[in-house]
Amino acid sequence: MTGRVAAAHPARQGAVGRRRGIARVARAGLARAALLAVAWWAVSEGDLSVAGYGAAVVPLVTAASLALVPAGGRPLRLLRRTPPALRLAGWFLWRTVLGGVDVALRALRTPVDTDPVLLEHRLTLPRGAARVLCADLSTLMPGALSVDLRGDVLVLHVLDRRLPARAQVDELQRRIAAVLDA
Q: Is the pTM of this model over 0.70?
């Protein structure tokens, strides 16, 4: 009977489809959160003193996983995204190490060698999670701190205007886009 009602009323059919979509996302989110909570518990060796961190991290990672791999998505898409995601992670870790070394060397020099500047840089990534991820990751790049994200403009505080901050953000965007487009 429900099938006939949905076929007879296109508006109801759309509402039914939306409810199924919401239910699918909710099921996927709960399953991922449960899996991540178990992983957190295992990594923390069941130490309840760090449960508060897990309570904050698990929902954030669940949301990120749903943004990167939507519920009901094709598993092959995840496999296609893995190589560019690993390349992004490796590149990012290397840039983070370089940034730490650069800041340490600057701190040891007398006088401290800085020429700070605020830069506005236009992002080409799609609105939403991709731009937020770019802003968050750019904070950990050598000599840069994400200050604000206004639409498609990222505002960065750069430790030294001679640093290639714009080129770093462009490369970061390219690598994030490669993960999302895979």
A: no
